Amino acid sequence: MPTRSRIGNISTPGPLEELPSLPPHLQVLRDDLQQRVQARRVRSHLERELSHLNGSREIAGSVRLLFDGQGRPAENLSLKDIVKYRQKIETDIQWLEAILIELRSDLSVVRELEDAALDVASVQQAEEDY
Fold first, then answer.
1. Can you tell me the distance from the alpha carbon of 51 to that of 45, in angstroms, rounded to the nearest whole number?
2. What is the reported pLDDT for 130?
3. Spatial separation of the C-alpha atoms in residues 80 and 13, rounded to whole Å
4. What is the C-alpha separation between 83 and 61, in angstroms, rounded?
5. How many domains does the chain have?
6. Which of helix, strand or coil describes residue 119?
7. I want to staple 25 with a disulfide (CB 3.0 to 4.6 A). Which of 43, 73, 107, 124 is the partner?
């Protein structure tokens, strides 16, 4: 299989041993940036997956409610089944809301840690400049 020539002069760093050593405060900022980039990637991936999953669930739920397993309309759809389906949807919504609350709580903790790390880094930078 032929390989194409490189398009530009962009190269990625190799193992961490090849990276220049940084002062501790800059290393903290670098690590934080790496974590932010990774979190952004995970968040965008989850958003794509959840939008696909939610759309598929809605379609499948509608089809399941209206048709039986062989694709025929349900002859006698009981009120009990409809109530059970509604309760399941409400439970799923409550579960997702609980996850959202937990993620927001984690985000506030991470923001506090980030602010503290940046404060320490700025104090260290000011001491070095003094």
1. 10
2. 77
3. 61
4. 13
5. 1
6. helix
7. 124
